[in-house]
From TrEMBL:
It is a multi-pass membrane protein. Residues 368-382 have a biased composition (Low complexity). It is found in: Membrane. GO terms for biological process: defense response; monoatomic ion transport; superoxide anion generation. Pfam families: FAD_binding_8, Ferric_reduct, NAD_binding_6. It comes from Mycoemilia scoparia. This is FAD-binding FR-type domain-containing protein. One of its GO terms (cellular component) is NADPH oxidase complex. Residues 272-370 form the FAD-binding FR-type domain. Residues 1-32, 354-395 are annotated as: Disordered. It comes from the Eukaryota. Its main location: membrane.
Length: 654
């Protein structure tokens, strides 16, 4: 695969006027204005201004093509990849034409060439879907020429190409078979069923239709399990292709790629099933999100990587990818499970989490419920479903129970800071997470004299947590953030998840006066419609906000939901330019209303850090990614008059 990054363009969009770097972070006084459904003025700044809503490229030919899905920004890398791909297909066709027997018809030559191209496309797919091999190549010189992070895009290109050749192949042979059926005076169906080639070809065609239909994005999103199981029809497809082709040519194409894929799969299977990593902690966050702390075992993850998790009691076959949200320095790995489908819903039930406000029976000694705090600050007692072990005299747990007036046989909620991992009886500001299960000793108990050395006794389990298997970790583009002097992380909605481990690791490095790689400055930009579904991430930002980090990290939050005029009025009344933000309640972070003006943002960052290679990392919707990539290319071009400054765009597949 050639070095590709596949961007698309939204086209020109209304932009706010650029600002000088000195104006970048000056707060504006609140203005109760609303233009184009975008609130402007509150907590805003010129360089980090919002972009007006509205249709993209309205009234232009490019805009009409964009709405039809035909307008694309073809970069040099993408053009090279497609040229290489088409060149290989043409070379195979020409070679097949000229190697055909003298005197053979052109239709027969074309039919054989479609067979050759189809076998090449199917064989290459095996390489694109070998993640262990690709993770290895990511850390070699090959990554300079091949963007291994785009293997999913390459897989799709190969699939579309294979679909084209399947249609051509079937059309040609159905045309030829129709003459044979007429000559034999039988129906076409009988003629196909009477031969091995016809019967296997018909079976292959049906299975290919099922695979392509189940791969359509709406089907894949809503019925992932259907997509997952039907996609594994590729195994009988490969077997039938050997039979269909008479074992003449197909093995030459598929032998090496299939061997690589099988070895890759076997390695992943052995690594995934090697031991059963224990779930150490289960933390229930709001809005159907559960955080798992899992034993590290032999893994050595880096910031930004992901793992596959399989839970036999939920489904003994399905492996689901989860981004690591823990820092590499921690002695465990953590993932956040969001209830978005059947598998995650069942998995969350097995963990004892709450779904849509309905309480599930905890599988272990867990503290399933947050004390309901009233306005006065008093709290109601929890349900009595937890029995803790003997506390012993003078232990920290005794002090916590006495403080909260909780009986030792009653539920007790521990609150955990998402960065420092310290546990306390009371939540810190903006933290609503609660520990559902914790079966190991906690050293950092934060209540009065923190770090006194006393340990919390492990809770007695009434029912075991589900066994899980973990395969990984696997690399992502986010790993490269430490290869740049300046890093810009842009997350949209749940796309902020891959950056959680990076932010935690940066905090750890700062606290220990350690410089991670070349990185000297990091900007984190979070764009979200509403905060409620990602309150666990707000907890992380709140923890980072409590540590100044001396300007090493700068955070900007953009809220894109339509805000009513009454809410704007309330926000303006509570707005304090020198205090906490009225939305996030953070000191060092201001909320901006509307979509970010990437042109102004990148221009400001480029001018402030001229002469540097700036890594730009994005995870979120495709349209926003296309716009951001386009603006990064423009910013690089516009900053050529300064000391060479270049933005390097990386997109996370999430």
């Amino acid at each position: 695969m050639a070095r590709i990054n596949i961007p698309f363009s939204e086209g020109p969009s209304p932009e706010s006027p650029p600002a000088s770097p000195s104006e970048a972070y000056q707060g504006h006084s609140p203005r109760l204005t609303k233009k184009g459904s975008v609130v402007s003025g509150i907590f805003d700044s010129p360089a980090f201004a919002v972009r007006k809503r509205g249709s993209v490229m309205n009234g232009t030919r490019a805009g009409r093509l964009h709405r039809l899905g035909l307008y694309q920004d073809l970069t040099l890398e993408r053009t090279f990849f497609f040229a290489l791909w088409i060149g290989i297909q043409l070379a195979i066709m020409l070679a097949t034409f000229y190697q055909a027997k003298p005197g053979s018809e052109s239709l027969d030559r074309f039919a054989k060439s479609t067979t050759q191209c189809l076998m090449f496309d199917i064989s290459v797919i095996f390489i694109f879907m070998s993640p262990t091999l690709l993770s290895f190549l990511r850390h070699t010189f090959v990554s300079r020429f091949v963007v291994v992070d785009k293997n999913v895009h390459a897989h799709k290109v190969a699939s579309y190409s294979a679909a084209f050749w399947i249609i051509c192949h079937v059309a040609v042979y159905m045309y030829k078979f129709s003459f044979g059926a007429a000559k034999a005076k039988i129906s076409l169906g009988q003629y196909l069923a009477s031969s091995v080639i016809g019967a296997t070809g018909l079976a292959l065609f049906i299975m290919f239709i099922l695979i392509f239909t189940a791969s359509v994005p709406p089907v894949r999103r809503k019925f992932y399990e259907v997509f997952y199981y039907i996609h594994h029809l590729f195994v009988p497809c490969v077997i039938l292709m050997f039979i269909h082709n008479g074992n003449k040519i197909f093995y030459k194409y598929v032998c090496f790629p299939a061997t690589v894929y099988v070895l890759d799969r076997l390695f992943r299977m052995v690594r995934g099933y090697w031991g059963t990593p224990k779930i150490r902690t289960v933390i229930q966050h709001t809005r159907d999100v559960v955080e798992l702390h899992i034993e590290k075992r032999l893994m050595s993850p880096t910031a930004g990587q992901f793992v596959y998790i399989m839970c036999p009691s939920v489904d003994p076959i399905q492996w689901h990818p989860f981004t690591l949200t823990s820092s590499p320095h921690e002695d465990f790995i953590s993932v956040h499970v969001s209830c978005t489908g059947n598998w995650t819903r069942k998995f969350m039930k097995r963990l004892g989490g709450e779904l849509d406000g309905s309480k599930m029976s905890p599988p272990a000694n867990a503290i399933p419920s947050h004390p309901q705090r009233s306005n006065s600050g008093s709290s109601q007692s929890s349900d009595k479903t937890l029995s803790c072990g003997s506390t012993g005299g003078g232990s920290k747990l005794d002090a916590l129970m006495k403080e909260e007036m909780v009986n030792p046989s009653t539920n007790l909620v521990y609150y955990m800071d998402p960065v420092t991992r310290k546990v306390s009886a009371r939540p810190s500001e903006k933290t609503d997470s609660r520990v559902l299960h914790q079966d190991f000793n906690v050293h950092d108990v934060e209540n009065g004299a923190a770090g006194s050395g006393n340990m919390m006794p492990p809770c007695q389990m009434s029912k075991p947590l589900p066994a899980i298997f973990v395969d990984g970790p696997y690399g992502t583009p986010t790993e490269r953030v430490f290869d740049y002097n300046i890093g810009v992380l842009v997350g949209a909605g749940i796309g902020a998840t891959p950056f959680a481990s990076v932010l935690k690791y940066l905090h750890h490095c700062y606290e220990n006066s350690y410089r991670p790689g070349k990185l000297r400055k990091i900007y984190f930009i979070w764009v979200c419609r509403e905060f409620k579904s990602l309150e666990w991430f707000m907890d992380l930002l709140a923890s980072l906000d409590r540590t100044s980090m001396n300007g090493y990290l700068e955070i900007r939050v953009y809220l894109t939901e339509n805000v009513g005029i009454n809410k704007i009025h309330n926000l303006s009344l509570h707005h304090n330019p020198h205090g906490r933000d009225a939305i996030t309640n953070l000191h060092n972070c201001r909320t901006h209303f509307g979509r970010p003006n990437f042109k102004s943002i990148l221009k400001f960052i480029g001018q402030k850090h001229e002469g540097n290679d700036i890594g730009l990392f994005f995870c979120g919707p495709k349209n926003m990614g296309r716009n951001l990539r386009r603006e990064s290319q423009k910013a690089t071009k516009d900053l050529k008059h300064l000391e060479p400054t270049k933005f390097h765009f990386h997109k996370e597949n999430f």
